[in-house]
Amino acid sequence: MKKAIRARILLDLKNNAVALLNEVKDFHADLDIAEEVKGEDNDATLGRLSAAIDGLNAAVAALKEAEEGEEAKTP
Predict the structure, then answer these.
(1) Side-chain-side CA neighbours of residue 43 (13 Å)
(2) How far apart are alpha carbons 56 and 14 in whole angstroms?
(3) 34-43, pLDDT tens digit by residue?
(4) Which of 13, 30, 34, 55 has a CA that sits 20 to 30 A from residue 3's CA?
(5) How far is it, in rounded angstroms, from Cα 59 to Cα 55?
(6) Cβ neighbours of residue 4 under 8 Å, at least 6 residues apart?
(7) 51-66: per-residue pLDDT in tens?
(8) Rounded to whole angstroms, what are the CA distances from 31 to 47, 50, 51, 61, 67?
(9) Residue 2 gets which letter from DSSP?
(10) Rg of the Cα trace of the chain?
């Protein structure tokens, strides 16, 4: 029972991280377009968002790996 709950929590965490990653990517794209169209200087913000995307990608990968490990343990 605990393993199933833990696997479900990992799945939920991974899904939330993926959703957040997609939102950050969309915001990054919007800022990039604003920079091109309006000439706004968003380089610092775009850099921070790129770092956030990299971190979220790593978190999603780690959560997916943990989730797969839990699934392998569940009979």
Answers:
(1) 2
(2) 10
(3) 888 887 788 8
(4) 55
(5) 6
(6) 74
(7) 999 999 999 998 888 8
(8) 11, 12, 15, 26, 33
(9) H
(10) 17
